[in-house]
Amino acid sequence: MILANNVSKKFGKLQALQNVSVTCNKGECIALIGPNGSGKTTLIKSILGMVVPDSGFITFNGNNILHHWQYRSEIGYMPQIGRYPDNMRIVDVLNMMKDIRQHKSAIDEELVAAFGLEELKQKRMRTLSGGTRQKVSACLAFLFDPQVLILDEPTAGLDPVSSEILKEKIIREKQKGKLVLVTSHVLSELDDLVTQVIYMQDGELRFHKTIEALREDTGQEKLSKAIAHVMLNASTI
Amino acid sequence: MKKIIKYVMADILRNRIVLVYLLFLLVASFSVFSLEDNSSKGLLSLLNIILLIVPLISIIFSTIYVYNSAEFIELLVSQPLKRKSIWISLFIGLAGSLSIAFFIGVGIPVLLYEANMVGFLMIGVGILLSIIFVAIAMLAAVKTRDKAKGIGMAILLWVYFSILFDGLVLFLLFQFADYPLEKAMVGVSALNPIDLSRILILLQLDVSAMMGYTGAIFKDFFGTTTGMLISLLVLLTWVSLPVWLSVRNFNRKDL
After folding, report:
1. CA-CA distance, A1 to A61, in Å (whole number)?
2. Domains with residue ranges and CATH for chain A
């Protein structure tokens, strides 16, 4: 579904991505893991077309994303730090998105209700706490029932109850056969979620394998232990 | 595209600065016309206010607005929208609301007191200047990532167009006083939309008789229909060139 081919990107002197090639298919739930500044967000932003790669290309369903901006209607994106126009209310943001996307089929407002945003609807975005803002981002990502979900640190800043709600929602969507790309530093959360792991370091893709293969290679059952094993023995893999 | 324009316009009109700008123009225009007994003299005073204030407000307000909408732009870019249409909508929203403010603030008083050829020309030129400086502001804002730097650049551009450019021209004129520069001056005036607007309007007023030999050459060129059309074309280039460049830049910008 999404195919990145030899994508490289430099920000000034910093090599954010170096010849990254990945293939993501339907029904997979892929965890993007790596230390801070390893290029995870840059890769996600390149897939979304927010960052334009210096070389290499990305295709979505076989179309180069450079020329086919319509593909973004198939993607729900939850940014790491959701930034919204300050003087809009929650309800304005939701309505604006519905208005812009012109979505034909049903709108999925399950999360709006689950997070209790109904009562906060009249609040302006600038008055919201980081966690509430994160909830709005999550609602927007799931609102249009997209085929691909890209979640950048989805549970950062959420309280335990809300992050559990979000996790269950992600699992339900995954079971519907959607592609889910998720980055997180809280590896224990990913355990019952992901089917594949992409490990990045210094802008390079170190490996992309299924979670079973990773467990076998490292001999660790838990993802957090397995990744720790990888980080410590980087040379063995 | 219409929808984004709608949201941008709604956001700008909710902003009090544009309202204050409109009221200021309104007060300035009415007071100028009621102070002078001869309304054509009023027009001249108004011209000087317009040529100073309109570019200043247009360029600085637009630059700050673009930087403050960074979040909004980021949100839109991750949606199924063409980058070009996001940027053009932002431009139309800004240019539209500032032009409307100008039309109400200056256009209505001018139409009341001086509804003739010069009056119409002045309204047209004022609206064009608003649009030109929105375009320049957007180019400055897309080129620089840093907000403080971008706003500084906008102010410098305004200083250049309103003050420095005239100084440079005067300097050149004095340095090359022995050469016949009158015709070249027509070309040089195309390099600054503010100067071009000033000349266009001044030549329609009686004071142009006092501008000497250069004035006569200017009258020969700008006084004719062809000259007017060419200047209009030049002013339109001042809109389209920055817009085109900024769209090109925005298409490749990393957010």
Report:
1. 5
2. 2-236 (3.40.50.300)
